[in-house]
Structures are given as C-alpha cells and as structure tokens.
C-alpha cells in the first residue's frame, strides 16, 4: 500500500473548545503527487495541515505517513520523518541572514553541534546555498531577512522547508499576498517539486493556479469534505456555491 | 571586522597584563567581575538564547554554595569534587525547574523562578540552622594542582580562562545549528517543532546547563568569600544578573561578558569618581549616590541602547553614516527623533527625509475637493533604502483609490506613512480633515490621525486576540466622532456586517480570516473615519468572501460617505469598486489611471514591469 500512497489521512477530527473544526476528514497524497486543499475561510484547511504537522492535536483519526501513523508522534518527530511545511506568514528569525534562516531547515536531519562534524556542516551549508539558489535568492544569501519584502520572505521560508529534505511538503497559501508576477514565479518553483521527489499538499485560494498545479483537489467546507477528485471538481455546483459564491467569475 | 579583532586583542592584552600592572583593588574588582561573567553567560543561555525569563540566579548560586559547603565540610571531598557536585546538584534542580516552563512564558515563568528562589532559600536556611547555626559555613582556602587559592592573583588565573572558555563556547553555540534552533524556540515557539526542534528538550537543556554553571559559580564564590550564609543570597543578586545580560546585549555572549564587567565595575568606578570630585562633603553620601547613578546608567542603556553594549559600534557607525548623508544634502533638516515606530531594535527606524510641506490648497484642479493630498512623499529607512520616492497622491472626497504594485514596491510603507505608524514626510491634507485644516499630517501620532478621521484596516494583526468580537468593537472610544457626515453606530456596523453579530461572543483569535477582516473593518468604521485605508483586503481570503467584502466597501463609500484608499493585489476583483488606480514600482508612481482606463496592457505592465500605456 505504501507504494502508491505517501500520506493517508482518515477520520481526522479536531475540536477547539468543544466546537468541531474538522469532522471525520480523509484524503490521500501519492508519492510525488500534488494535491490541492481548497475551501472558504473557516473551512478548516489550515487546521488540517496543522493536524498533519502536529501543531494541533487531532482527537480522532489516523495520519499515516510513509507507512506509519504519525498522530501519536510529537511534531518534531514528524519533521524528522520527512514532513516539512511552510507558513502563510513566513516566520523567520529577523536577526539573521537568509542563509542562516534556511540553515535551520537542516536541524531536522543534522541537528548536532556543527563544529564537531565539519564535513556534515559543510554539506548542510552547501545544500542550503543550493536551496536558496533554487528559489532565486542566491544573491541575497547574506542579506538580513528583517527588511525583505513579503514575497521574498515567502521564498526564504520555502527554501528552509526544502532544506528539511521532506518527502511531504505542506504549503499554506504559498501564493497569497504575492503579485501576479511573483505568483507565476512561485508556481513554477512549486510545479517542479514532485519531479524532485517531494509530494505536495497545498492550501491555496487562487483557483486558476490550483487547477494548473494540482493533479487532485480536496474541497473542505465547515470542517467537512465536500469533494475530492481531479481539478474539475471545482466546477461542481455545490463547490461553486460554497467556495466561489453563486455568481460565476473566476478571479 | 579587523577593527573588531584589534579591539578584542587589545582587550585580551589588558586582561593578561592586569595582575602585573594593576592595583590590588582593581584586581579584586576584576575577580568579582569574572564571577559575574560566569553567571551572566549562564543566564543569557536561558533568557537571551532560548527566551526563558528567569529571576532564579540567587537560588542556583545558593544551591552551589551550600552543596559545596556540605560536601567539603561533611564529606571532605575536597575542592574539585565539591565544585563538580555543586554543578551537578544545581543542574538537576534546574532541569526539574524547567517543567513549569513547558506551560509558562515571560512574566509568569519569571514569577515561578522567584517562587523557586524562596523555596530553595527556605531549605538552605533549615540546613544552615541544623548544621552550623547562625554564623553560616566557613570554607577553607582551596587547593588546585598544588596551588593554594589564597590570593586574588590565584583566583584571577583560575577564573579568567574559565570565563573566557564559557564565553567562547556560548558564542559558538549561538552561531551553530543548535543556536539557531534555540532562537527559533525563543522567537517562534509554536512553530519550532516543525523544524525538528523539541521545545521541551531545548528548555530543559537550557535550564540544566544554565543552572549548572551558576551552581559552579556559587561553589567557587563560596570558597572565594570564605563563608556560606543564607542571607547572602537575595533576589537583588538575580536582578543584577538580569541587568548585566540586558545591558550587555541579550543573546550575545560577547556583549553579555561586557555587560557583566561594566555592571560589576560601575559602582566602584563611580565611588572613586564621586570621592574625587566631592571631597568630604560628598563622601558620607557616596554609597547612596553610587546606587542612584548606577541605576540611572542602567535605565539609560535600556532606553537608548536597547540592543545592549554589543550594538554600540553598529549604532555609532550608522550615526556617522547618517551625518555623512545629511552633510551631502544642503536642503536637509528634520532629525529622525520621533520614535513612532516601536519595533525591535534590529528593525530599522525610518529616517526623516527632507521635509518641506506643501500647501494643501489645490483648489485649481478641477474643483473636486481633495480629502487627502500627498505631495512628494519620500520615506527612507536608516539603512539607506528608499521605500517610497517622491509620491504624489490625491484622494478626492468620496473617491475610492486603488494602489497596486509588486511586493516591495512600497505600498505598505505608503499606507503606514499616511496612518502615522511611520514617521512620515511631506504629507498635506485638505480642509476636510478639519482638525488639520491646512495643516500637515507630518509627525502626527496614529491616535491623532484616527481622531482626525483616518482609519487603517491593517494587513496583519487585525484583531485583539483574547477579546471577543463584540469587545473588539468596544475598544473604540465613543467620544471620537467629531463632525462626521454620518455617525456610525454599532448597530450600523452589525447591519452592514451581520456575520459579526453571530460571532459577537467568540474570541477574536478563533475567527476565520474573513470574519477577522470584517471585524477590523467594523472597528475602523466605529472610529468615524472620513478616509478608510485598507491594506490587502483580499489577502488569504476565498473569492466569494473577497467579493462580499468588496461589496461592503462599496456600501461604506456610498452610504456612509467614506473616502476609500486600498492597497490590493487582486486588481481585477477590486477594480469595480475603485475609480482610480495608482501603480507603484520601486517606491515611485509609474501610473495613475481612471479605473475604466485599466486594461490588459496595464495588467501586463504590473506583472511584467514594462511601460504603462496611458
């Protein structure tokens, strides 16, 4: 079974203060797959990503990653097992440079005292520089992140997640807040991830890009799965009603 | 870099020469300072690196002192084993004391370390009474490698390498992979686990290492002073250590070492100085004066050097660079003395660009009455980056203006300048904002601007978490309305945004993105704005909600008579509610079009950065 499914979420339920935010949600991400997670605000998309990465606790269900239920594991152990993620608002260490921020991604698989293992350290550093170059920020690697604009910080966040060498990457609205040009560049980066061996589960509101990037789309509404299938599910009337509003006008 | 190396080398040379050249008095002061370096470095691991505020140094010093006393006196272990035992005992207690830190943060954690201090001192007092009584333990002169530690010189040669090694070690750790992980726990504790960092492990390790070193310091100090008495361990000591860390530079090992040296030596320096200038008249009061001046120096450091002593060279360099730039421009003036932006010291504070405020009277242009007239707005950050360059912007009364541009084009800086969260330059406003009739918005504080009728719906941090939605609306003072066209009541807001009534009793932190945006808009409306400034209305919201919110904006403009200025990425979606579109690029206006003139070509220019067809 692990051959065709990297992540299997089944029956996941999350409640905040008694109110269910996710009820019995399930989905699957194949290895090197690209799955979109859409739905109106408050549908529970970010909560589902948080439940998979361990930032919120699910009260029921299973999250099987790479053949093992990771729900009982604390968040940092899930990271070590190859679950990486990015954030809507890149949470960076503002006192440090781009490169230093990206280097944090190496902690998941090379946590120990760098100067005791110089070869390992050099390897992490090389990969970090490569990750920065991959997101187009090679020139800014020694630039402090504090005064970088939103879109650039987003790319630093992505490079940091890539340095974790994840098998599954959870992306929380990677395109929001970016200009059209930046969206195009970011989407191009994301489109290349599956080929490099990274499966993606992406929360995103930009329906056009969801259609173009995702092989499969899961729609949530009020904590319940509304649809799950190829991007054409976005055209189902129920989905349009819940997500786009009745009037039809993409973007 | 080389300047830094030279000064470090000079500093090392002074330290090495001290026992041969300095006076006995100075040698003993420096020995005390070296003790302080140990304790301050240890505290910095907790407070500066991992972000766990502790006022518990006295407790761990006491554990170290009493453990050493008991081991040496009762078990006759000798100096080295007694010190090792002290380190271990304090480390174990520290590890246990980290358990509250799993749940507590900041102030609450600090209080728990105070509680720990009293518990430890209670036990120490019991031990002391039981074993030796009121006089306390007497410690022998220790011997190490056949050398008797009975003079300041001997202690100096023991402590100098120890303090140097601890400082160097923590300096390296700060810059290592482990240090970055620790800083993530400090700055973004909730997300640190996502990068494989166990926050519990990190906190326990920090507490144990820090406490162990302070315990070692306590043991050494007990031998140095010659007695161990419970009354020597007070909360005041803990606070003094905290001052060393903060004055030196939170999180910087080198800075903390400097802070420890300064705070220890300062009272002695002042004492000498006051005696020298005051003669007999002052000498009776020097100790009081010394305390007052020491306190003033510490407060001064905190106020004007929030990055600590370690940030001093960078601050001086930046000041010199600023003076240099200013000298180059003959028209320049206006010092950047307005501390409007309250951000961490590392974040740049905008320096004032040359300011000549233009007149608000622009009646010549078509007769439509500009509510807001911005002329030649320039915002330059102290690092030399000009985020907004000579921008003109005109918002007629009742209009809706859309500001577009790539990230980094200066949109948010522009809005922040207008709403007073930046020190802004060259902004003039019209008669409509009558409290500023013909006056500038320059250097007005955000609350003054709100009172004058400019309301911001911010991009982030829209709501006050911990308050319900209704309480978020109640935050607006009732009296603020002054002569608006229409007084907006809470009922008006709930009628416009009915969803808010449904979530009135929900904690604002738990609202969805769309509800938070509605709440922020509703709250802004209650300040009775003439100009509503909205930063990224659509950010992170589903298309249906964006459309709904844009309809509300149209209503706000039409029915409430509020002028609207929006920064927006979703140009297409927002276009129907706008009548002008202003495009920024690299901080400058590259297009200013009527909304119906916006074409696919303009869109292409926005995306591709080409020429804008007018």
UniProtKB/TrEMBL annotation, chain A:
A single Gene Ontology CC term: plasma membrane
Annotated SMART domains: AAA
Keywords linked to the UniProt accession: ATP-binding, Nucleotide-binding, Transport
One MF annotation (Gene Ontology) recorded for this entry: ATP binding
Domain called ABC transporter: residue spans: 7-247
SUPFAM superfamilies given in the database record: P-loop containing nucleoside triphosphate hydrolases (SSF52540)
PROSITE patterns for the chain: ABC_TRANSPORTER_2
One Pfam family of this chain: ABC_tran
Protein name: ABC-type branched-subunit amino acid transport system ATPase component
Upper lineage: Bacteria, Bacillati, Actinomycetota, Thermoleophilia, Solirubrobacterales
TrEMBL record, chain B:
GO BP, one annotated term: L-amino acid transport
Listed transmembrane segments: 27-47, 54-71, 77-99, 106-125, 154-173, 205-225, 237-270, 291-312
Protein's UniProt keywords contain Transport: yes
Single GO MF annotation: ATP hydrolysis activity
SUPFAM superfamilies: P-loop containing nucleoside triphosphate hydrolases (SSF52540)
ABC transporter domain location: 372-611
Membrane topology: Multi-pass membrane protein
Keyword terms: Amino-acid transport, ATP-binding, Cell membrane, Membrane, Nucleotide-binding, Transmembrane, Transmembrane helix, Transport
Entry's localization field: Cell membrane
Any one GO cellular component localisation term in the record: plasma membrane
InterPro entries hit by this protein: AAA+_ATPase, ABC_transp_permease, ABC_transporter-like_ATP-bd, ABC_transporter-like_CS, BCAA_Transport_ATP-bd_LivF, LivM-like, P-loop_NTPase
Cited Pfam families: ABC_tran, BPD_transp_2
Tagged with keyword Metal-binding: no
Entry similarity comment: Belongs to the ABC transporter superfamily.
Stored PANTHER family: HIGH-AFFINITY BRANCHED-CHAIN AMINO ACID TRANSPORT ATP-BINDING PROTEIN LIVF
Name by which UniProt lists this protein: Branched-chain amino acid transport system permease protein
